[in-house]
Amino acid sequence: MTDETIDDIMDATYCALCKHGYAELTMQDIAAESTKSKGTLHYHFEGKGDLLESFLEYLLDDFEERTETVPGETSVERLHEFLDELLTPSDAESADEFRTAILEIKAQSPYNAAYRERLTEFDRALRDRIATIVADGLESGEFRDDVDPDETADFLVTVFHGAQTRATAVDRSPERTRRYVHEYIDDVLRADGASGGDGVSTNRDHTEAGE
């Protein structure tokens, strides 16, 4: 497949997932969002499961490309910005629908080795990206000496997954979790006197009423 065809099919899969969710999604639904026919989809993919496996891999590649360079002049700023984007993505309009669809796919992972493998790769990529930022901050003296990059990354990824699940399952906005995470970075991780936290352009002063 050409890159153009891949992008078209994956964009269509994203739109169809947001509209229909995992359980009700069909190849025809995806074709309806694409410039390609249902026959073309079946030519390239055995079925919905095969296509969604490729979709998860596509999301992972896109994530790694988008986060290769995290904005910010310091490690503290980069960690704030990275987690800010995770918990409140810039494409917030379809975030709720997409969270629901991904949660449905996650629910299939205990029974689908391919889904589980792709989700494990994404989890590992998240942890590695955060651990690298924290390790850089330790080297520059921005984080406390007793901070462990791997343990910190594991904790923050767990918080992220929990926030996503709660947002979908019980309609709990990730906004409060987002604020707590920023406070955790500044109050627990950041070394005394280190710069880089207060200047980050994140909305960490939301009130309960404003969530």
Plain-language structure description:
- The chain has about 210 residues and is an all-alpha fold.
- The protein folds into 2 domains: about 1-65, Homeodomain-like (Arc Repressor Mutant, subunit A, Orthogonal Bundle); about 70-210, Tetracycline Repressor, domain 2 (Orthogonal Bundle).
- The protein is about 70% helix and about 0% strand.
- The chain has helices at about 5-25, 25-30, 40-45, 50-65, 75-85, 95-110, 115-140, 150-170, 175-190.
- The longest helix is centred in the middle third of the chain and has 27 residues, at about 115-140.
- It is elongated, with a radius of gyration of 19 Å.
- The N and C termini lie far apart (about 45 Å).
- About 25% of the residues are buried.
- GO terms for molecular function: DNA-binding transcription factor activity; transcription cis-regulatory region binding.
- Keywords: DNA-binding, Repressor, Transcription, Transcription regulation.
- It holds the Pfam family TetR_N.
- This is DNA-binding transcriptional regulator, AcrR family.
Topology, element by element:
Layout (H helix, E strand, L loop, with lengths): L2 H22 L2 H6 L5 H7 L3 H19 L8 H13 L7 H14 L4 H27 L9 H21 L5 H15 L22
Helix pairs in contact: 1-6, 4-7, 5-7, 5-9, 6-8, 7-8
GO molecular function: DNA-binding transcription factor activity; transcription cis-regulatory region binding
Protein name: DNA-binding transcriptional regulator, AcrR family
InterPro entries: BetI_C, Homeodomain-like_sf, HTH-type_TetR-like_transc_reg, HTH_TetR, Tet_transcr_reg_TetR-rel_C_sf
